[in-house]
Amino acid sequence: MNEEPARRRYDSLRRTAQAQQTRAEIARAALGLFVAHGWTATTVRDVAREAGVSVPTVYAAYGNKTGLTRALADAADLSADVPQLIAELESPATDPARQLAAMAGYDRRLYERAGDVITLLREAGRSEPELATLYHDSRVRGDQTRVQVFSSWPAGVLRSGLDVPSAVDVYAALCNIDVYTVLTGERGWSPDRVEQWWRGALVRELLN
């Protein structure tokens, strides 16, 4: 007697799983096309063809190309493991050098796992104001985190002559997607080597 309701429940679960799988396939197809051909040159029809779905399915899943790119950006943030960063920053055993190491580790994870999405977002923002705002807001959030961390340190920790805004500028000059891309893509550095260099450079440049 209970078989039919149970079957209906499983049918609902199956439809949800299928919808999630379709969204994932669309996202993978879109990212590959965006990276290969550029955001502007890639159309929703191209994405649909690559994912093996209809154009209306892409619109139903993400709204439009901008919505799809926003979803990729959200996934990029998750991939870098923000909870790990928070735990390391708030650890009772932490100190300024360890906090700098935690932030460098987060940036390494972000660029290693989602650097293509960050580059894509910056490119797309040149022609799409909503995505330009999204890219800008993500940069602002990163700066705000650094301001909070640096402001929490006792007086005398920051290198002589540096105030908090200047320290944030120095951090941004060292740990950014362009530096990471040049070192790993052109100079042959491993992500581990980049992270270790960042750790040492941040301590040398920011701390007394």
Automatic annotation (TrEMBL):
Domain (HTH tetR-type) ranges: 20-80
SUPFAM superfamilies, sorted: Homeodomain-like
Pfam families: TetR_N
Residue ranges for the DNA-binding region feature of this UniProt entry: 43-62
Signal peptide residue numbers: none
This protein's UniProt keywords: DNA-binding, Transcription, Transcription regulation
Gene Ontology MF, one: DNA-binding transcription factor activity
Record protein name field: DNA-binding transcriptional repressor AcrR
